[in-house]
Amino acid sequence: MASIVLIILGLIGVSYGFWDSHHYKTVDDVKVLLAEEAHHGDGHGEAHGADHGGTHATAGHHEADAHGESDEHAEEGHHMSHEEHVLHQIHNRPWAALYVGAFFFFMIALGVLAFYAIQYASQAGWSPVLFRVMEAITAYMFPGAVIVLLIAVASGTIGHYNIFTWMDPEVVEHDKLIQGKSGWLNMTSFVIRGVIFISGWALYRHFSRKFSIAQDNADDNKNFKKNFRISAGFLVFYIYTESMMSWDWIMSVDPHWFSTLFGWYVFASMFVSGITVIALITIYLKSKGLLEFVNDSHIHDLAKFMFGISIFWTYLWFSQFMLIWYSNIPEEVTYFMTRIEYYKLPFFGMLAMNFIFPLLVLMNSDYKRIPWFVVMAGIIILCGHYLDVFNMIMPATVVDRWFIGAPELGAVCLFGGLFLFIVFRALGKAPLLAKGNPMIKESEHFHY
Amino acid sequence: MEASKVVHAIYNDDDVLMAAVKKVKAEKHHIEEIYTPFPVHGLDKAMGLAPTRIAITSFLYGCVGLTVAILMMNFIMIKDWPQDIGGKPSFSYLENMPAFVPIMFELTVFFAAHLMVITFYLRSRMWPFKKAENPDPRTTDDHFLMEVAVHGNEKELSSLLKETGAVELKFIDKEDTH
Question: Is the ipTM of this complex over 0.90?
Answer without folding.
Answer: no
